[in-house]
Amino acid sequence: MRSIEVCFTPDLIRQHSLKEKTVVVVDIFRATSCIVTGLAHGVKAIKPIAEIEETLLHGPKGYVMAGERGGVVVEGFDIGNSPFEYQQDYLASRKVAISTTNGSQAVLKSQGASEILVGAFLNLEALAMYLVESKRDILIHCAGWKGTPNLEDSLFAGALIDEVAESLTISGDSALIAHQLFISAHENLLATALKSSHAERLKNFGTEQDLVFCMEESKYAIVPKLIEGELVIPT
Amino acid sequence: MRSIEVCFTPDLIRQHSLKEKTVVVVDIFRATSCIVTGLAHGVKAIKPIAEIEETLLHGPKGYVMAGERGGVVVEGFDIGNSPFEYQQDYLASRKVAISTTNGSQAVLKSQGASEILVGAFLNLEALAMYLVESKRDILIHCAGWKGTPNLEDSLFAGALIDEVAESLTISGDSALIAHQLFISAHENLLATALKSSHAERLKNFGTEQDLVFCMEESKYAIVPKLIEGELVIPT
Predict the structure, then answer these.
(1) Fewer C-beta within 10 Å: chain A N or C terminus?
(2) Nearest to B150 among A12, A147, A173 (CB)
(3) Does A175 touch chain B (CB under 8 A)?
(4) Cβ of residue B17 closer than 8 Å to a chain A Cβ
(5) A174/B148 CB distance under 8 A
(6) B16 φ, ψ to 5°?
(7) Interface with B, mutate which of A173, A186, A192 (most B CBs under 10 A)
(8) Which of B7, B139, B148 is the best mutation test for A, with the most CBs of A within 10 A?
(9) B118-134 burial, b if ≥16 CB within 10 A, otherwise e?
């Protein structure tokens, strides 16, 4: 049987083999929730970029520039990191260049995998169906918070494992921990996620409606995939 | 209020400040369980050492040489990494030099803290009482498994947090995850711990009785502390 494992933070990704694997990148608050929302609302492609400076070079090339540092929109960028910003009509058919504290880095550090997908509660069911029918071992790569594990990404990892547990072998203790965490919290998922340190930080920026939105389950039936450096809905 | 935080693996310790903190090193299967057992049974001091070669230099100095790599006793060492070996009469009043896959490394990577203690289920209650009455912020440093988090150390971190939660603020998501994990598993703690990847590996070496012993709670009322490079019961 194929296996599913979890890496709690990009700082531990070197402990995992990426070769021949499907990697699911997760940054629930808020990068991967934004990516799923944007693509579901017609954004053509989203290019993850590590550095602010390089992102700014993409404006003149026609990209909408998006992202944050420490929860705040970057000066000179067009939009920040709220899933509501990604629902604006003018973004349809545009490309977005995104640079965020944790999420962009997790995508970039997943390079070497056979396939890189993006996961969020917003596309949980579609993603799980895709994974059950795919042929590779799976690694859930949580963006975490500045190199440490976070609660909301771990909860999502557990939720995704729970969805596919009949078809895949749970591999390694990080996956066991995430799964047990989700099982114990799933009846109060929103309340549990809002207790996370990151949620507490973001609430200071008035983003509580963002957080509630990011915890909505299976709102969008899409599975974004990295193709030639950009996240798209494969045709 | 003072805070208590968790680091799931020595590979993430650089994300935490050690300054002015009390660090509790944890390697339930089996190094810190052995250390607590040995000191409780009269071993005079236990010196954690990273490398096998350096450990071998301690034999001629009168140390009992102890430790394992990958769960197996090292060739040339006197004892391995079973808590039952640490209960032998001939060890009383002797010093032990210990080098293990994960545990020794976690002690050594905790240097810089104000105080380094050793925790296991075997001394849970005594350790919790000590921490409640101490004056510093606390960091639980889990040894994990070759750089990744493991289930049994995370369960212990959660158990210790649960013991002191009325007196200390839970700081950071790793501590929230560990605490939630313990709460959900505490009625089946042994069964949960035996599901860990490390337990599965160790069972292949016929060590199941070791694992059951390591999960016994508060058998010994001691708090080992690192003093001048050696773990002792402070007088």
Answers:
(1) C
(2) A173
(3) no
(4) no
(5) yes
(6) -115, 145
(7) A173
(8) B148
(9) bbbbbbbebbbebbeeb
Whether this model's pTM surpasses 0.90? yes
Strand partners, A230: A227
DSSP assignment letter at B77: -
Q: What are phi and psi of A57, to 5 degrees?
A: -70, -15
Q: Is the peptide bond before B201 cis (omega within 30 degrees of 0)?
A: no
The structure tokens listed for A36 are: 């799923």
Residues of B in contact with A150 (CB under 8 A): 173
Please count the other Cβ atoms lying within 10 Å of the Cβ belonging to residue B228.
7
Buried b (16+ CB within 10 A) or exposed e, B4-17: bbbbbbbbbbebbe
**How many angstroms separate the CA atoms of B32 and B193, rounded?**
16
- The count of other CB atoms within 10 Å of the CB of residue B94 is 17
Could you report the predicted ipTM of this complex, rounded to two decimals?
0.94
pLDDT digits (tens, 9 = 90+) for B156-194: 999 999 999 999 999 999 999 999 999 999 999 999 999
Q: What's the pLDDT at A72?
A: 82
Cα(A134)–Cα(B147) distance, integer angstroms: 29
Q: Residue A154: closest CA among chain B residues belongs to which residue?
A: B177
A185–B contact, CB cutoff 8 A: yes
Alpha carbon distances (Å) from A221 to A10, A41, A97: 27, 12, 23
As a whole number of Å, the end-to-end CA separation of chain A is 28
